[in-house]
Amino acid sequence: MKRSRPPSRTRSRSRSRSLNVRALLALAVLAASVAIALTMPVRLGLDLRGGTQIVLETQSTETTKADREATDRTVEVLRGRIDALGVAEPTIVRSGENRVVVELPGVQDPKKAADVLGRTAQLTVHSVLGATETPPGETGKEGETGKEGEDGRAAKDGERVLPDESGQSLRLKDATLTGQDVKGADARFDQQNGAGWTVTVDFKDAGSDRWAKVTGEAACHPAGDPQRRVAIVLDNKIISSPQVDPSVSCGGGITGGSTQITGSFDAAEARDLALLIKGGALPVPVETIEQRTIGATLGDEAISAGAWAAVIGTALTALFIIFVYRLMGALATVALLCYGLISYAALAAVGATLTLPGLAGFVLAIGMAVDANVLVFERAREEQAARTRPSTRSALTAGFRSAFSAIADSNITTLIAAALLFFLASGPVKGFGVTLGIGVLASMVSALVITRVLAEFAASRPAVFRRPGITGISTTGPVRDALLRRNPFLMSRPRRWLAASLIVMVVAGSGILVRGLNFGIEFTGGRLIEYSTADQVDPDRARDALADAGFPRAVVQSSGDGDLTVRTEELTDAEAATVTKAVSELGGETEKLRDELIGPSLGEELRRDALIALGLALAAQLAYLAVRFRMLFGTAAVSALAHDVVILVGVFAWLGKPIDGVFLAALLTVIGYSVNDSVVLFDRVRELMGKERKTPFGRLTNDAILQTLPRTVNTGMGAVLILASLAVLADDSLTDFALALLIGVGVGTYSSVFTASPLAIELHDRDAGSRSARRKGGKGRGAAKPGKTGKQVPASRTERQEVL
Fold first, then answer.
1. Confidence of residue 803 (pLDDT cuts 50, 70, 90)
2. Tag placement on the chain: N or C end, fewer CB within 10 Å?
3. TM spans, by residue (predicted)?
C-alpha cells in the first residue's frame, strides 16, 4: 500500500518548482538584455548628439508650382517616408517658400536616406501599344518622338516611349492607374515560384476596377504580342512590364485588386520600393541642395545636469522605498535596476532614438515602475495584518495573487493607448508610443517575475523567517494605521468634491481663453539664421549669449565646417539684428549665410493624426474598462482624465509656459498616470462589491479609497522625488518638463480619489434610482422613501445615512 505525501510537502514542492521556473525566466531575460546592451548601442537624438542635415528644394513642373502649399504637402510625404525608414525623432521643417530642411539623428547611411527622400515616386500603370525601333529621344518615321530629356514625352498625344527592363522601347498609352489608386505595398520573398524578392501592390476599390480593365484589354492579344503586356512605371522608368497570364480571359482581367512587381531586387531594394509606393508620390520633384553634419541642440552642460538629476532622483526614490519596505524595498530596488537594463536593451533592439525628454521620461518610468511593487507589498501587509497567513512568504504569495488584477488592468489600458499611438500617429508621438509600450512590458517583467523571485527566495530563508520585522511587510505602516484609527467617511457628500473639482478645472481652464496658449516653435515655425564666423564659436557660449540677449528658447547648433545655426520663434528685423550682434561678439567678423522663415516641425497633419490616435486610445480604454469593470467606472476614469488634461494645459497657459514637443511628451505621460491611478482604485471597488454585496456603494468606494491610499502616497512620492530632482538640478530645457509632470502627478492623484470616485458614486446612484423608479411604476429619481428616522429623504441619501 502506497503512503500518500502530506499536503504541506506537496505544496512546498509546487512552490519550489514555480520559483525555479520564474528564476530561469528572469535569468534568460536578463542575459539577453545584457547581450543586447553590450552589442547594440541606443541611438541618441538630435538634442544629445546631432546628426545629418539634408536640405531639399522643391522644383516646379508644367502643372504644379513649387509654392509654399506644395512644399508643405511635400513635408508630410517626406515624414511618412522617414517613419518607414525607421528613423525616430527626426526634425522636418519647411524653410522659406520652397526648401525643406530634414535633420536625421544617428543615420548610418546618409547617402541612402538622401536618395530615398529625393525620389519623386510617381507610380503609373500603362497599357502597351506595341514595340518601336525608335529609341527614346529620337524622331520616328511618322514624326513620332520619344521623351525629351528624361520626361518620357509622348510620341503622340497621350502616349510616351520608354525602354523596358531589357532596353526595348515600348509605346505606352496614357496612364490608367496612378499612385492615388494604391492602398498599400509590401516587400515579400517569393520562395514558392522562385521569383526572389517582389513587391506586392494593393489597389483601392476604384483602382481595382481599373486594374481589371487594363489587364482584361491586354488579355485580348495573343501570347508574345507586346500589347499583351502591362507596364508599371516609377518616375518615368519601367520597373516591370509583365505579360498577362494566358489563363486570364479577354475582357475579364485580373480581379482581386492586387499585383506583384517582380525584378532583380535584393531585400533592401524591395523594401525601399515598397515604402516609396506606400508613402505616396511627392506633389513636386525635389533636388538635394546640400548635405552636412550638425551638432547637438543641447550643450554638454545641459546633458550633464540632466544626467546628474536623473541619478540623484533615482537614488532618492530607491532610498525612500528601502526606508518604507526595508528588505523588500531593497529587493524591489534591485528589480528596478533590472527594469532599467531590460528597457534600455529593448530600446536598442527596436532601434529607438533616445532624446533628453525621452531620457527623463525613461527615468520617471523607473519611479512609476515602483507602483507594481508597492501594490504587491501593500496587499501582503493587509494579508499579514489580517493574521490569515502563517508566514511572510505566504503573505507575499497572497499579495502577488491579489494585486495581479490591478497590475494587469492598469498596464493593459496603457498598452492599448501605446499601440494606437504607434500605429496611428507619427513623428514624436509615435516614438512616445514605442517608449511607453516598452516601459509597461518591462515593468511587468520586473515586478511579477524578478521581484517575486527575489522576495520569495529571501522570505524562505530561516534568518528572515525568525525576524519578520526586517521584511517591511510585517506591519501595516503609519499611513494605513492612521487611516484605520480615524476611518474617515470621505465620500459622505460626493457632490461637494465634484463641485470643487469643477471649480478648479474652470479656473485653470479659463487661462486657455484669457491668456491663450504659447505654442513653441515646433507648432508655429519661426526663423532660421545660419552664420559663418571668423573664429569658431562654441554652441554652449552662443546659447548663453542669446539667453542674456533675451532669446532663452533659441536652438543653437554647429553646422558643417564651423558654421553656426540659430533657430528661434518669429523675429522682427531689430530682434534678428540683436541675434546677429550677439553671435558676432563671440566670433568676430560674421557673415549671414542663410536667413529664412521656417514652418512648424509638428505640422498640421501630424497634429491631426496625434489627436485622432489619442481620441481612439481613450475610446478603447473606455471600452476595455466597461468590459472589465462597468461602464460607469470607465466613464468616471476617462472623465477624471479629461479633468487632469484641462487643468495641466490651463496652468501652463496662466504661467505663459511654452506648449512644445517636450510638453507634449509630459502630457501623454500624465494621461497614462491618471488612468493607472483610477484603475487601481476601481479594481479594489470591484473586489469589495463581490465580498460585501449589502454594503452601500458609497461606503464601498470610501473603503476602497482608504485601503489603496497608502499605495497612492508611496507611488506618488517615488515619482515626486525624481521630478523634484529634475526641476531643481536639470537644465532649463527639462524644468518645464518636470513642472508639467509634477502638476500632472499631483492632479492625477487628487482626481482619482476626489473626481473619479464621487462621479462613480453619482452615476451609480442615478442608475439605481432609475431602476427603482421603473420598478415602482415610473416614479422619478427623487421619489421619497422612509429612512431610519421615518422621514422622507431622497433615495441616494438614504444609502449614505444607513452607513453613518
1. very low
2. N
3. 305-325, 332-352, 358-377, 398-425, 431-455, 497-517, 610-627, 632-655, 661-682, 713-731, 737-761
